[in-house]
Every structure is written in C-alpha cells, then in structure tokens.
Write a structure and sequence with these properties.
Pfam families: PhnG. Keywords: Lyase. One of its GO terms (molecular function) is lyase activity. The protein has one domain. By secondary structure, it is of the alpha+beta class. Helices cover 43% and strands 27% of the residues. The longest helix is centred in the last third of the chain and has 29 residues.
C-alpha cells in the first residue's frame, strides 16, 4: 500500500483526466483485470461549497453531477474507488480499476503506462491554455503627473 498523499495525487489525476485521453492510454495496459463490483457506477449530485476570497464564510455554490463506483480485484483483493465529474460510467470504472491496480504489484507498470503519460499530457494542455490566455493579456501603464 502506498502512502495517502501519493494516492490522493493519482486519484485526483484520474478524476480530472479527459475521458478520451484516459481511454486511449488505458489500452496500453492490456485487457481489464477480473473484478467484482462493491458499488456499481451510479450518478448523482453533490453540493459544491465556496468561500469568498478563500477565507470568508462558506456558502453553497451549486450542485455538480458526479459518478462514483467501487470494485475489488479478483486476484490480490485490492479495492479501487473512483469519483468523477459528470455521467461517464466507463471513465469511473477505469479510474477505479487504476486505483486498485496501483495497490498491487502492477503499480510501477500502471504508473509508467498510464499515470505519467496522463500527467504529462494534462500539463502540456494546461501550458498551451496558459500561453493562449497570455497572448490576450493587456498591460496598462499609468503616467505620473508632476504633482506631488
């Protein structure tokens, strides 16, 4: 079992990953392992809360649709969980399988073939988005008058 901080990172990465990218990279892992559902994928809503300025009193911002599931691998008995935004049950299943596989002897393979390339692609997409946004940046200069 890995330390919680690391698991938090890979579960966050899987939850934020675009479904098409996750599906494309998932194929490199080969056939899906045998598993049993503990909680089949189900879609529902969760309340999102916010704070003004990050420090103010919390308030209800609105609801977000999420899909969650839990499964247990047949061999190794590892349990995988997933919560993903939206209604994509296949993405939730893949994320839960990846979580379970990361708790087995296949963790290094899953990291090398799925998680690392996924993190790199998402970082590249974020860099490209930031570059497009920076191109539209307008800088204002204020001229100081001679009055003190």
């Amino acid at each position: 079992m890995t330390e919680p901080g690391t698991r938090r990172e890979w579960m966050g990465l899987l939850a934020r990953a675009p479904a098409a990218t996750l599906e494309r990279l998932w194929i490199s892992l080969g056939p899906d392992p045998e598993f049993a559902w503990l909680r089949p994928p189900e879609t529902g809503g969760v309340m999102v809360r916010g704070r003004m300025g990050g420090t103010g009193a919390p308030f209800n911002l609105g609801e977000v649709t999420v899909t969650r599931c839990a499964l247990r691998l047949q061999e190794g008995r590892a349990v995988g969980h997933a919560w993903v935004q939206g209604r994509d049950k296949a993405k939730a299943r893949r994320a839960a399988l990846a979580d379970a596989l990361m708790q087995t002897g296949r963790a290094d393979d899953v990291r090398a073939r799925l998680l690392d390339p996924l993190a790199e692609e998402m970082a590249a997409a974020e860099t490209a988005r930031a570059a497009r946004a920076a191109a539209t940046r307008v800088e204002f200069f204020t001229m100081v008058r001679g009055e003190d």
